[in-house]
Amino acid sequence: MPSPPPSTAAAAALQLEPLLPHLSTLSHYKQFHARLHALGTLHSYPSLRARFLDRLALLPHADALPHALLLLRSLPSPATNDFNAALRGLAASPHPARSLLLLAGRLLPAPAPPRPRLDALSLSFALKATARCSDAFATLQLHATLFRLGVAADVRLMTTLLDSYAKCGDVASARKVFDEMPVRDVATWNALLAGLAQGTEPNLALLLFRRLAGSFRELPPREEPNAVTVVAALSACAQLGTLKDGLAVHEFARTIGAVDNVCVGNALIDMYSKCGSLSRALEVFHSIKLEDRTLVSYNATIQALSIHGHGEDALKLFDEMPARIEPDEITYLAVMGGCNHAGLVDDGRRVFDSMRVPPNMKHYGTIVDLLGRAGRLAEAYDMIMSMPFPADIVLWQTLLGAAKMHGNVDLAELAATKLADLGSNVDGDYVLLSNVYASKSRWVDVGRVRDTMRSNDVKKVPGFSYTEIDGVMHKFINGDKEHMRWREIYRALDEIGSRICALGYEPETSNVLHDIGEEEKQYALSYHSEKLAIAFGLISTPPGETIRVIKNLRTCGDCHVVAKLISKAYNRVIIIRDRARFHRFEDGHCSCRDYW
DNA sequence: GTAGGGTTAG
């Protein structure tokens, strides 16, 4: 098609440019594209074209990105900016790895047009993609590319690189990039802090935060901690469950005036909830102005109510969500989890049936648990069968747990078979199956399970608990004698045993594999990590003080009974945060009402 | 003009 003379094209570009920020629907974009094309501006005004392409590629519509790619492919010689627009769109799409294909020239038509020169932006977008797909090797390759092309390694690009390494789980490389950077700013610090906090190093993250917060007045302005720093630090506190640290970070947030930031508010809700203070979490939620609350504010608060056993309140808050905020998959998971922990079976089922987003594996997991615990095993099984995708290991473990709870041998065997098919080989599965047989006195089958365990080299998931005394974390593993004061702790457990026996305690040994004698079973139970932690708390804190314990797995039935009795016999409030929720023991009762 | 760091999940 012949292009209009340049003067006309320039006039057209001038006329089109102001429209660009107002395009909203895909149809607008298509019309704009047609006019760019008809007026000859597509080729004579590459900057307008690139800005158009950039916006189109990021438009949240399933056909927008393909259309942008089509346009890119139609260009005889795309410019760096055109290329970057597509890279950015692909990196932010549900298939970020495709931006790496484009980078390699694989998405361009054959014979490929000359690929434009790459710049810092190209690499920045590609690094975003490798971070999103956790591809550590691709990150490393881009790092090499960056040197090979001699792209200026400025603070922004290097921060992106650092962040990408951290998000791919390669914290060592992230630190190395950090150490070698000649100039850093607050985003650099934050990327490292968040990398440590979200990886497996929340303790290191807190150390780093304390260093930053302790010296923040001496830092150059561009390195001063800000709201993002606070959010990352709060996430470390939430993981660790250390209320003391969380309170200190909150105080720091006030110092730097970051508390009005809604993300800080949301992170505070989560931190307080996971550190055991539901009241403080709710206080923060209510302090956020109604119009400032986001979906995350509601999700975090509903989740807080759920893990503290307040299912009714979680449902109420869910119903009260303002119309401007659409619940997402996390909202549904949180509110159904709340129903599950509070035994609100019909409410949970109703929420599930009313979901306005497609349920994922976790939603099915929660609803199967909910139905299974309530003894509605057929319904739970039908739920699994009705799923549009195959059930995973956790889901079959959930069903197995329910089958054990209600003594259903057939369902337990079925779940165990599925688990074996899926390659699960953890001790808990076998213990549950064996206990179903034991509950029906099927000792031959019990023996068979034990033999399978021996021949399969079963993995034991180690249970551990920790408790904080005077600012120091003490960690306990089942039956361990590593602690400096282990003799005192074991002596205390003996004393606890006799005091709670007087209150009618009988060891609940059905949670132990039936391949050992009754006495050994009791022994295996009495030194569960949470019991060691509680005993240590009892002997190292003054009478009446609350004992707080965090456990990596779910609390076992026997420990639950024991914690209730200790709370009565010693007049102590005991709070255990397990994998799924909080248990608050007081005067012989638990906040979960024995349903969890 | 175009880039970096953040909170919710069985």
UniProtKB/TrEMBL annotation:
Any one of the GO CC terms: cytoplasm
Pfam family, one: PPR_2
GO molecular function, one term: RNA binding
GO process annotations (BP): mRNA modification
Source species, domain of life: Eukaryota
InterPro entries membership: DYW_dom, E_motif, PPR_At4g14850-like_plant, PPR_rpt, TPR-like_helical_dom_sf
Keyword set, alphabetical order: Repeat, Transit peptide
Domain DYW: 504-596
Ranges occupied by PPR repeats: 154-188, 294-324
The protein's name in its UniProt record: Pentatricopeptide repeat-containing protein OGR1, mitochondrial
Organism: Zea mays
Gene symbol of the encoding locus: OGR1
